[in-house]
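Teaching assistant here, posting this on the class forum so everyone can see the example we discussed in section. The complex has two components, and the goal was to see what a joint structure prediction looks like when all of them are supplied at once.
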Amino acid sequence: GQNIDQPTEMTATEGAIVQINCTYQTSGFNGLFWYQQHAGEAPTFLSYNVLDGLEEKGRFSSFLSRSKGYSYLLLKELQMKDSASYLCAVLTSNYQLIWGAGTKLIIKP
Amino acid sequence: SQTIHQWPATLVQPVGSPLSLECTVEGTSNPNLYWYRQAAGRGLQLLFYSVGIGQISSEVPQNLSASRPQDRQFILSSKKLLLSDSGFYLCAWAPGQEYQPQHFGDGTRLSIL
């Protein structure tokens, strides 16, 4: 079967760094997406990784290891507005997008 | 730039009533279109996707149906709603190339009474 695992919930402090992990087992791999979803709103695209390594976009970075079936999203200098759910999604070999259940990130002052 | 419109934002319907949710995309042609449902605190469940006019693929058997009467219009329908149809419905579009991210409309929160 196909499976994506993310922690259900994480808590971090404003100004700190947090790493949200995602592990996957899918039928083939054509890339991994990270989305941010604020409560009651639609998901918005954050990043796409298809090759191993780290992709940096401002305060957000995303890492991929295809051999380990593992990715993480790194958020630096956390702000209260970063409180949201973070969704990991894998594009399989037949271009089907498999979604994780999401990680709810709570930022405390 | 491309934009996606989805309406209504919220909807309260009685059990057994029909449903029609509409989604339109502007600023692009021949997009891939998607309907998702998200239960509270859960991930996204793909319901339907379309790669062209009249081409609909169903992922989950249910009492819902989808249609794509025009290139940039995607409609989600039901003849008789069930209590289990409650949820947050999201329309998304992506360029035809598979590696491009999907972009979502604002969603419709559907409550069945």
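For the discussion questions: The interface with chain A takes residues 41-44, 46, 90, 98-99, 101-107, 109 of chain B (CB under 8 Å). The longest strand of chain B covers residues 44-52. Think about how each of these relates to the inputs above.
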